[in-house]
Amino acid sequence: MGSYFKSCLPSEARPAEAASSSISNLHRFLKHTTPRVSAHVLSKTQVRRTRLQGVRCFEEGFFSLNDLWDSFEEWSAYGVGVPILLDRNESVMQYYVPYLSGIQLYSHSIRPRLGDDSGSEMDYRDSNSETSSCDGELERLHDQSTLMLSDTEENVREAETLIFEYFESAPPSLRVPLSEKIKELSARFYGLRNLCSNDLSQSSWLSVAWYPIYRIPTGRTLKDLAACFLTYHSISTLLKDDQSKPLEVHSWHGDHVLLNAFGLTCYKLRGPVWLSAGTIGNSNCSFLQRSSEQWLRHVNVHHPDFEYFKSHYTPVYQGAYKCEMAHPVRKGCRDMKR
To answer: What Pfam family does this protein match (any one) (predicted)?
Structure first.
């Protein structure tokens, strides 16, 4: 799956530094809503484990799902502020609350060659590591799953096992913020808390719905700021051994990792405010829209929020630039009905 993400983000999505006036508001939204998660270093035993499975982790590091959800805690309670530049250099701080829209967790399962006991009894945990992988939890989950594995492979037989999925279908007005939803779901599936990114195969992903709640200063009504967004994020740090480059959807910075969006879908997007001519982030708009749709086809799932957003769009034009993003019907995001 690493090849899918190899060129997932165009170069303009990761500018080194640029003047604030040259960056589109859509780009600012993506920057300020990117999850920033504490990163951990794999123990030597964990590195050996992943290599035995024919996979490895970029930078030999990982993050825990528990830390991922913690990164949404404050945003879920108060919203995340996004600076929006309006006409005549006027600016406001628009706040968005994250909601869990969809998630799928896959594990990377292997079975040794028949008669080969190498590694079968290896202790994959490091007694000195406080952030070891959750082998016991994965073993229990695998026992509950039916794996379609071939008996003819030479060394290892591998498959991706779907161990958890959830797709929100309730109208936005009836939803609870992401952190609260995770607490609810983890009471039924503990893996949402104790699994790590290196336990999950490359088909594991997360979609977050972002709805506007208020802005500072309040001022006049700005319909252009009523846009709602779906962002898509990879939550696996595994790579195949033949991959020479890291996942471009993950940016590693010392003790933390940024989970950049590899897909984006919008509802109620209006071009002039979000996609000003000549700003960084314009071509990224259509690219990320296509990427999210291609990804959902790849994993072969029905994502209710995506289907709703997609069914209410018309192309948005900004000068000679066309962005095929969602466009609204005459309803507020919180009043959407299926």
So the answer is: DUF789
- Average per-residue pLDDT for the chain: 73
Residue 62: domain span: 2-115+132-335
317 is a domain residue: yes
126 occurs within a structural domain: no
User: Could you tell me if 292 and 284 are in contact, meaning their C-beta atoms sit under 8 angstroms apart?
Assistant: no
Answer yes or no: are the C-beta atoms of 316 and 325 closer than 8 Å: yes
Asked if residue 279 is part of any domain, the answer here is yes
C-beta pairs of 245-254 under 8 Å, 24+ apart in sequence: 245/6, 246/58, 246/59, 247/2, 247/5, 247/8, 247/58, 248/5, 248/6, 248/7, 248/8, 248/9, 249/5, 249/8, 249/9, 250/58, 251/14, 252/39, 252/58, 252/59, 252/61, 254/39
Total of domains in the chain: 1
- Indicate left, alpha or beta for 59 from its phi (over 0: left) and psi (-120 to 50: alpha): left
Look at residues 21, 10, 86 and name the one whose alpha carbon lies nearest to residue 279.
Answer: 21
SS3 194: helix
pTM: 0.75
Is residue 122 in some structural domain?
no
Local structure of residue 333 (DSSP, 8 states): G
pLDDT given for residue 208 in this prediction: 99
Which amino acid is located at 252 in the chain? W
CA 138/CA 127 separation, integer angstroms: 18
- Write out pLDDT tens, residues 246-262: 456 788 787 899 999 99
